[in-house]
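Handout, section B. The chain below has 119 residues.
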Amino acid sequence: MEDAESKNLWNEAYERLRQENSKLVDTYEKDLLASSSPELQKSGAKSGADAPVGMGGKNREERLQNLVKDKLDAMQKARLKVTVGGEEIIVKDQVCKVIRTIISCKDFIGAAIWRGPES
């Protein structure tokens, strides 16, 4: 019950904001639409440059979820990758492994350097 009430509360707040400052909400929706995938743009776009996107109620929630999913997918695709022997390696993950290994061995390396030949 709380989940439905909170969704209704968010929808009420969104609609109230639209009534109080429709230009702000329209600009927000257009910016969201401009940064979304072509499929998402087609589902909400109306003809004319000044037409509101009209992200109302459940449709708005679904479109925002799709937008977030698209952005996460784009971030995954944008990661620096190298293919070695037919296997795709994500550079960031490998660098993190090397750094963790160095950090875990730093005391041993420091002790080995400190106990080196004295001059």
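Note. The chain is about 70% helix and 5% strand. Compare this with the example in section A.
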